[in-house]
Amino acid sequence: MQIIFLITFIFLIDSFNYAAAYFGPGVALPVLLLIIGIVLAVLFLILVIFYYPLKKFFKKNKK
After folding, report:
1. pLDDT tens, 28-44?
2. How far is 27 from 21, CA to CA, in rounded Å?
3. In which domain, by residue range, is 54 found?
4. How many domains does the chain fold into?
């Protein structure tokens, strides 16, 4: 009984294949927009961090 179970178990594990999944525009487009949004948010954050201190520095030097 155990031999039959073991042979069946090994056969089932060996028969698994990779899924032939299709990533259509319904999945790919939101992921692409998410990546673009994260990149733009990081760039905006860097711009804001450097912009306001430089703006204050140059306003102080004009007086």
Report:
1. 888 899 999 999 999 99
2. 12
3. 29-63
4. 1
